[in-house]
Design goal:
The complex is a heterotrimer. By secondary structure, chain A is an alpha+beta fold. Chain A has six helices and twelve strands. Chain A has helices spanning about 1-20, 25-35, 85, 90-95, 195-200, 225-230, and strands spanning about 40-50, 55, 60-65, 70-75, 80, 100-110, 110-120, 125-135, 140-150, 150-165, 165-180, 210-220. In chain A, a hairpin with a 3-residue loop joins strand 3 (about 60-65) and strand 4. The radius of gyration of chain A is 22 Å and the shape is globular. The chains are: A alpha+beta, B mainly alpha, C alpha/beta. Strand 5 of chain A pairs antiparallel with strand 1 (about 55-60) of chain B, so a sheet runs across the interface.
């Protein structure tokens, strides 16, 4: 009996100590530092768009990145990329003033993650609240859920692969977001509604879109020049 | 004998200035649209896709020859019928105005041969005009603006077609447009068999088309029951070739209905012409 | 028995309750130059349009060259040439081109030489390449005749072929008709308002009015069966009148002036009256009979005979 009580005390103590030593800002700092090791990269992407009102084949593109927030996308043809996710970089994200709180620990796709809530301070950001699932063993963000002012919520899920035996970079990113706020222009076409189109309008299925980007052929820290990013980039 | 008559009819129509109006009009209008697109096209495209661009970043250029050809096909589905009626409405009525039935029908040719050869001439003209449209809009458009993905904005979907997936659709769409315009030709031809002046058929055919389009566009219950019977609906279904996936039943239905209209209008014109007293 | 080239039986055509042609019968024999006469609105054009299948009769039958028109239209058309009313052509094409087009659908092979020869026949060879819109009315008339003759038809139907022609032109067409009839053995169906012209060329005729037959027969027989207007030019009209006073001749006086007296006489009475004048001492300077189809025609159509 006495032994059991002691074990319990020790466990509580360990837990308390553990909780107290878990500083959300420190966790985020480690994530940032891990990411800072990547000065630049060039990667081939395959973009799959799965949005109810949008039909397009998988598109290929090339993404160039340079710290802290330079992005350039090159595509032989036309390609669509989700606006929010594209510009996402932990560096910029976490450098704006914010408050971070550890919410819980959760197993996500068989990886233990620490769930941290980040609330930006001030009105500068569109983001109201973000929830991050952090894999502390590799200092990687596994999932982000953000609520944004104009466009509703967005969920970004990451899968990583090891590049050059050194860096963890995303192999797949899946963006899931609300699309029911997108309106349709009649534009120049002046379409007359077909029967099937009219039926769909009446069905108020909650519209969520999904974009999956698959990354391959990373070339990391090649020393990309700034000139590359001055090229006319779309929007 | 019908081939001879068709050759004669083609000679006659291509010696008339009104036949060239359609070709000239397209020859002017399409470059004008190209020019406008060159300067304003990107803005229009941005405007059309502005909501989409709130959530997405666009990479690459959607302003290409395919997009502009698609726009032109839309804009001209009212204008081309008018150009068709200019010639089709004159095929029978013009002969009456000129008084030349008296030298034509006193020859050893049957009325059926005469009316068929004139009708087929009208169809040939229609085909040539649509072909010219294709060459001017797609041919010249691709030269000026290049190839790229085609964005098709329908009433509740946006379709982006890969550049390798577009040209066959245009071929079929132009083919379908030819059928649609042939129906317009046959209606003008029918009206032409009833009167002795080409103005009547031209105006009445356009009036029918415009009224039917208005009825089709209005979301009123009374009109909805009539809408499936209006041939203009089916003419505009060339757009179905830019759907993904293709709605085959709908396409087959449209083709069948248009063919049925064509046969009906032509058949009626034959009947009228055969029975008609030639008083001109 | 002469071959009937045109046989019309009980032909009737009604336009909106107006009978344009009613119970018309006529026969044209091979080799005839047949005059088809009637005042304006009599139904001539309507009849001709029925003969060439431009309009369909309500009742009656038409046989051309021994065949029913209704059932053999195409075959018959190849053997008939016709001008119907004012000749209209494809004005934006030349005369040659017009004839070439018509030649291609005439059921026979029409050579370039044939076209030129036909144009020469009607006096248009010099202007064969000009667009028809540059042609005068008279030239179009000639071209109309040319298109009717182009395929060497057996029967030629001419509706007012001399309208708009000058006296020289009239003579040329008249000579052409006589040549076609006498030398080439064509049968000619000729409708006209210029009655004096018909009188000079036709051997048989029909006069219609208000869609109905008034009279049909041999031109010379029809002319001789009725009275002739004869002008006697005399030195002294008063003296002549005195001489006639108590005779049966006085009722035959129609009009007189200070130089002449106009009588209406049978053709055999002319010599008799002349003899009487001579015996009575009246000096007759000239005798001018003016009985013609024209007078007859006017008489017929006004209902006084």
């Amino acid at each position: 009996m006495k032994n059991l009580f002691l074990v319990l005390l020790i466990l509580i103590g360990i837990n308390a100590a553990y909780s107290q030593s878990k500083n959300p800002d420190e966790i985020l700092k480690r994530v940032t530092e891990t990411f800072e090791m990547i000065k630049d990269y060039e990667v081939d992407v395959l973009i799959n768009v799965n949005v109810k009102f949008l039909k397009m084949p998988d598109r290929k593109a090339k993404i160039f990145y340079k710290q802290p927030d330079k992005i350039f996308v090159e595509s032989e043809g036309f390609a669509l990329l989700p606006k929010q996710g594209l510009n996402f970089s932990p560096l910029t994200f976490l450098q704006t003033a914010h408050t971070a709180l550890i919410d819980r620990v959760e197993e996500l796709n068989r990886i233990n993650t620490t769930v941290i809530k980040v609330i930006p301070i001030g009105n500068k950001s569109d983001i109201i609240l973000s929830t991050l699932w952090i894999d502390e063993s590799r200092n990687l963000i596994m999932k982000i859920e953000s609520s944004t002012k104009p466009d509703g919520s967005i969920v970004i899920e990451f899968q990583y692969s090891k590049i050059d035996d050194n860096f963890y970079l995303p192999s797949t990113i899946v963006f899931t977001f609300d699309v029911d706020k997108v309106y349709f222009p009649t534009g120049i076409t002046g379409e007359m509604n077909s029967e099937s189109e009219k039926k769909d309008k009446k069905n108020d299925i909650a519209k969520q879109g999904k974009v999956t980007i698959t990354y391959s052929n990373y070339k990391v820290n090649q020393g990309l020049s700034d000139e590359l990013f001055k090229k006319e980039s779309p929007n | 004998m019908i081939l001879t008559l068709i050759r004669i009819e083609l000679l006659k129509i291509f010696r008339k200035w009104r036949t060239y109006i359609g070709f000239i009009a397209i020859g002017i209008l399409v470059p004008v649209i190209h020019t406008a697109m060159y300067y304003e096209g990107q803005e229009s495209l941005d405007f059309m896709t502005r909501n989409l661009q709130q959530s997405f970043v666009f990479v690459g250029n959607l302003l290409n020859g395919y997009f502009i050809s698609y726009i032109i096909l839309n804009a001209l589905t009212i204008h081309i019928p008018f150009l068709i009626t200019l010639v089709a409405g004159d095929l029978l009525a013009g002969e009456a105005t000129a008084g030349t039935y008296r030298i034509l029908l006193t020859r050893p040719v049957s009325r059926f041969q005469v009316v068929s050869s004139k009708f087929l001439t009208g169809i040939i003209y229609t085909n040539l005009l649509v072909l010219w449209l294709a060459v001017m809009s797609l041919g010249v458009g691709l030269l000026l603006f290049g190839i790229g993905e085609l964005i098709v904005i329908r009433s509740d979907t946006i379709i982006i077609l890969d550049k390798s997936d577009v040209i066959w659709r245009f071929m079929l769409a132009y083919g379908f447009a030819t059928l649609g315009m042939s129906v317009v030709c046959s209606l003008a031809f029918l009206f032409s068999s009833l009167v002795e002046n080409a103005i009547g058929p031209i105006i009445s055919t356009m009036a029918v088309i415009i009224v039917f389009i208005i009825i089709s566009a209005l979301d009123i219950d009374v009109f909805k029951s009539i809408q499936p019977y209006l041939f203009v609906n089916y003419i505009l279904n060339w757009r179905e070739f830019f759907n993904d996936p293709l709605d085959f039943p709908r396409i087959v239905e449209s083709v069948s209905i248009l063919l049925a209209h064509l046969v009906l209008f032509f058949g009626t014109a034959v009947y009228i012409f055969k029975k008609k007293d030639i008083l001109s | 028995m002469e071959e009937k080239v045109i046989e019309v039986i009980n032909l009737t055509k009604v336009f909106r309750e107006v009978k344009a042609v009613e119970g018309l019968n006529l026969n044209v024999n091979r080799g005839d130059v047949f005059g088809f006469l009637g005042p304006n609105g009599a139904g001539k054009s309507t009849t001709i349009r029925m003969l060439v299948s431009l309009i369909a009769p309500q009742e009656g039958s038409i046989k051309i060259l021994g065949r029913s028109l209704n059932q053999n239209k195409r075959e018959i058309s190849g053997r008939v040439g016709a001008i119907v009313e004012k000749p209209d052509f494809y004005n934006y094409l030349s005369a040659y081109k017009n004839l070439e087009i018509l030649g291609r659908i005439s059921g026979k092979s029409i050579s370039k030489k044939r076209i030129i020869d036909t144009l020469e026949l009607v006096g248009l060879a010099a202007r064969f390449n000009s667009k028809v819109k540059t042609y005068s009315h008279g030239m179009k008339q000639r071209l109309g005749i040319a298109q009717a003759l182009l395929h060497d038809p057996e029967l030629i139907i001419l509706d007012e072929p001399t309208t708009g022609l000058d006296p020289q032109g009239l003579k040329e067409i008249r000579d052409l008709i006589i040549h076609l009839s006498k030398t080439e053995g064509k049968t000619i169906f000729l409708s006209s308002h210029i009655l004096s012209e018909v009188e000079l060329v036709a051997n048989r005729m029909i006069i219609i009015n208000k869609g109905k037959t008034i009279v049909e027969g041999n031109v010379s027989e029809l002319l001789n069966s009725s009275n002739v207007k004869v002008t006697f030019e005399v030195d002294n009209v008063e003296e002549a009148k005195k001489v006639l006073e108590t005779t049966r001749w006085s009722v035959k006086i129609r009009t007189f002036s200070d130089k002449e007296i106009i009588f209406e006489l049978d053709s055999d009475e002319i010599a008799e009256l002349n003899k009487y004048f001579v015996e009575s001492g009246v000096s007759v300077k000239a005798i001018i009979p003016s009985r013609s189809l024209e007078d007859y025609f006017l008489k017929i159509t006004s209902g006084t005979e």
